[in-house]
Write a structure and sequence with these properties.
Length: about 80
Amino acid sequence: MLRYLFKIEKAIKNGEYPNTKSLNELLRTDFSRSTISRYIDILREEYDAPIEFDFQKNVYYYTDSTFSLDHVILREGEL
């Protein structure tokens, strides 16, 4: 799971403006929209990632471009 979170975060951080389809391609999965949404929710709720969804463009993006998971300290049991 952590591997998926880092890949999703990297795509958003790099300004790729991913959506469910592009994230499935990146992750080499066939996750449903709700599964991708759960990963996004984990990033938001557990790691305070400032992720928003643009409904007009159908993409995820950061509202704070300085955020990075690289600066998040992992808790015991997360590896």
